[in-house]
Amino acid sequence: MKQSARIDPLLRRAQEHEDSVARDLAERQRALATHESRLDELRRYAEEYASSQMAATSPAQLANRRAFLDRIDDALKQQAQTVDRTRASVDIERDRLLLASRDKQVLEQLAASYRVQERTIVERRDQREMDDLGARRSRQASLAAQESEEQS
Question: Other C-beta atoms within 10 Å of 88: how many?
Answer without folding.
Answer: 12
